[in-house]
Design brief:
elongated, 2 helices, two-stranded antiparallel ribbon, alpha+beta, Ubiquitin-like (UB roll)
């Protein structure tokens, strides 16, 4: 008697924006394991661990105070990579359009009034005491 064959793993394609120039988009395609309920963030972390350690994206699921760091565009719609679901037909992941692109899916998410330059402009100098 032979053991039943293991079911074939389902796979899907994730197209990821790569680079630092939003005016010259480049997409890399990755084939990743697919299962119902998997998130886009699951796919991105799998890609980084198994296929391409150079892919840049941001997330901070262990700290509720930093939630919203994984915000990206999935198939043209803004959402959180941790809650957007993979599709068996594949997905395209891009950085936010209204933020300065740093690299790949990483954008500058610091509010304009909270940047170092803005803080230095408000600073009247060191406290005297």
């Amino acid at each position: 008697m032979t053991a039943p064959a293991a079911p074939a793993l389902k796979r899907t394609t994730v197209r990821v924006f790569r680079g630092v120039d939003p005016a010259a988009p480049r997409f890399d395609e990755y084939e990743v394991p697919y299962e119902d309920g998997a998130s886009v963030l699951d796919a991105l972390t799998w890609i980084r661990a198994h296929l391409d350690s150079s892919i840049a994206f941001r997330y901070s699921c262990v700290n509720a105070n930093a939630c919203k760091e994984c915000m990206v565009r999935v198939d043209g719609k803004v959402g959180y990579a941790c809650t957007e679901r993979l599709k068996d037909s594949g997905v395209t992941v891009e950085p936010l359009k209204n933020k300065r692109l740093i690299r790949d899916l990483v954008t500058d998410i610091v509010p304009p009034k909270e940047t170092l330059a803005a803080a230095q402009m408000r600073d009247d100098g060191p406290a005297k005491g």
